[in-house]
Amino acid sequence: MYQLINFLKSMVNWHMALGIISGFVQVYSIVPYIKSILKGQTRPNVISWSLWLVLQAIAIFGQISAGASWSLIFLLAMFFNIVLVLIISARGYGYKKYGWLDFVCLASAIAAIIVWKTTGDPVLAIAGVVIADFIALIPTIAKTWREPFSESAISWLILTVAAILAIFSTVKIDFANLLYPVYAVLSSLIVVCLAYFGQRTPKFKVTC
């Protein structure tokens, strides 16, 4: 019996299992957002989501070039979510508007690729993606601070859980495999806290 248990343990790769679960959780996190789109409550900006698609692709290829671990599944799932939103948006649920944040994200993406190809260091490309992604997230953070009911705390919490699972799924403890998942945890928690506590303490809501 003891030998059987040891054999079963050897057959199970817990890092892989966590990576796969992380991917499923990440995919599930987009469900409330898609429901909101189909109800007409949310209209995604096709330009912004297209740029996020480029940023995500850079992060994926950067991690692969640096030697990917199971945390890559989290990035692939996020890439899938973005593609799904773009497909739905293209069917009339989205709109196209190019703003200064989109320009900054595009410039950051180009800079990340140039730095990557010039230095041969994919970690710098992933760092560029994180910076660009956070810049794109700033309006959402500001909006959630002013209007906490405009974001779903549970959706962002699900994304946070997926990112945490991705962190623990990696077998390579390095910046390439941990930088984006760690950033995803921290950035998502900001929105979770603003939405959750803002919805329960409206007297602290900022109206400016």
- Topology, number of strands: 0
Question: What's the number of structural domains?
Answer: 1
What's the alpha carbon Rg, rounded to whole Å?
18 Å
What is the helix fraction of residues, given as a range? over 70%
H/E element string?
A: HHHHHHHHH
Look at the structure and give the mean pLDDT. 83
End-to-end distance: 67 Å
Largest sheet: none
Shape: globular
Total count of helical runs of at least 4 residues: 9
Per DSSP, what share of the residues sits in E-state strands of 2 or more residues? Answer: under 5%
Unreliable stretches, pLDDT < 50, 5 or more residues? 204-208
Which structural category do the helix and sheet elements fall into? Answer: mainly alpha
Give the SSE map:
Layout: H1 2-11, H2 14-29, H3 31-38, H4 46-66, H5 72-93, H6 100-119, H7 122-146, H8 153-169, H9 175-200
Helix pairs in contact: 2-5, 2-8, 4-5, 4-6, 4-7, 6-7, 7-9, 8-9
Structure commentary:
- α2 (14-29) packs antiparallel against α8.
- The chain contains 9 helices and no strands.
- The protein is globular.
- The N and C termini lie far apart (67 Å).
- The longest helix has 26 residues, at 175-200.
- The protein has one domain (13-133, 151-193).
- The protein is mostly helical and 208 residues long.
Features:
disordered C terminus; 9 helices
The gist of it:
Helices cover 79% and strands 0% of the residues. With 208 residues, the protein is mostly helical. The protein has one domain (13-133, 151-193).
